[in-house]
Amino acid sequence: MLLLGTGWIIAIIVTVVLVGIMIALYIFGNKLQAKQMEQREQISAASQPATLFIIDKKIMPMKDAKLPKMVMEQAPKRYQKAKLPIVKAKVGPQIMTFICEEAIYDDVPSHGEVKAMVSGIYITSVRTLHKKTKKMHQEELENAPRKKSFREKMVSKQAKYQKQLDYEIAVKKTKEEAKKQKAELKKKKEKEKKITV
What we know:
With 197 residues, the chain is of the alpha+beta class. The protein contains 5 helices and 5 strands; from the N terminus they run αβααββββαα. Strands 1-2-3-5-4 form a 5-stranded mixed β-barrel. The longest helix has 47 residues, at 150-196. It is flat and about 65 Å long.
């Protein structure tokens, strides 16, 4: 009898602790998602179009990528060893190293000219310019092995979620704009009523 009672008590305590952990993780996840949405909006607001000639692209640690000193100093130490998609490109007469968004890394051709949206040293979107470049990139993708690695599966999932997040941000902006327009129309109608009375 006593053993059964203590077993139930332990099970209840473990369940309560697990529920508490799940709630904490949910709240923490929501905060991180809100922070990421805010950062995405800032990056998209600061993005500028640029024509890049891609020289090389690799996935390598941040410390080996030869990024500017200022970027390396601002990055946390744990990210300096993490592997990132790095693109080496020629912008006008200057050769620069960029960090590419993982969701669009596969869309970047290894050689060729592209039109990209760039925010500082961060490439947010890419569109190939020439038909030859598109054909070369298509052949590259076709010659790639058919079976996807774990990383490729995760990147494709991330790309899918990123598109969903971008869509949600766009919907949120349109809803806010519609509310503003309704409020302005309401104010105009109220002013017209006051003038007529």
